[in-house]
Amino acid sequence: AQKRYASLRDLPAISLDGQEVALYMNAGLMADLPSLEGSGAQGVGLFRTELQFLIRNQMPKRDELATLYARVMDAAKGRPVAFRTLDIGSDKVLPYMKPNDEPNPAMGWRAIRVGLDKPGVLRMQLQALIRAAKGRPLTVMFPFVAEFSEFIEARSAMLRELHREKSLGHAIPATLEIGAMLETPSLAYAPQDFFAMTDFISIGGNDLKQFFFAADRENERVRKRYDTLNISFLSFLEAIVQRCAQTGTRLSFCGEDAGRPIEALALAAMGLRVLSMRPASIGPVKALLRRVDLGQARAVIDEARRAGEASARDRLTDWLAGLPQ
Ligand code: PEP
Ligand code: MG
């Protein structure tokens, strides 16, 4: 199978009915980067910057981070990299930060909430990204945005740092794209102005699903209540696809489901055209997308919906089993 995936490396993920899905990889450590070549990823759809903070025993310095981000961009050789700003709190606690004792950390003070309430670290990180990019395109996204106002504030912080760097006479990025991760259902119902303002949206399905179903992503006991192929969840994703289409907002999906072939198929059938996943999943996902008709997959999901079934999993699995290999 490895050999078969290698032979697909330079081929696009195009379905039998001619729909192309762009496949990107998720990364976070320098060790992930060599996979960019081998996997055939079109770029890095999610760079989890917190990993660099988690593997240290003290807060990294700005210049250290700038060097590191520049190396990531070097390794990407002009392919886009979406740097997600620090996503700490919840299950990710920095060993050198005072742990905050919260009853429910997943819904507590985490991600962009920390970045906006205590902006020192966020500003340092944004400066490091700007310095790393000098003269090259830069793509930044903010994690766990739940409201339009948070996005406005985070984006303003980015633009402030950009102006500051410029006024200091430093080189600035050739282009700058600022996006939001959609990880809470609330953001899907943000005002139209949000969709018009953001350069792109990336669905963080791991968190989005956990809040959609109120089922902890870490808890095995509620695993079956956390089904991506649940018709309600697929309908919700479709509503997001439609809202983005109205404003022409680029949309991608970067949770773990993007790397699970049957889940990835359902995401593509609901209209997602950019998926970002762990590099080893690109081959299997591409192999499946190339041998299906997405319109037919969509019709199978609609049959499950019309039949009042909770999930499209059984029907999609049966349909796939009946396809020629
Ligand atoms: C997600 O929530 O789907 C996501 C990509 O972010 P993380 O898994 O790092 O929370
Ligand atoms: Mg998340």
TrEMBL record:
Q: Where in the cell is it found?
A: Cytoplasm
Where are its TM segments located?
A: none
The record's family statement is: Belongs to the PEP-utilizing enzyme family.
Name used for this protein in its record: phosphoenolpyruvate--protein phosphotransferase
Recall the taxonomic lineage recorded for the source organism.
Bacteria, Pseudomonadati, Pseudomonadota, Alphaproteobacteria, Rhodobacterales
Gene name of the encoded protein: ptsP
**What stretch of the complete protein does the chain hold?**
421 to 745 of 746
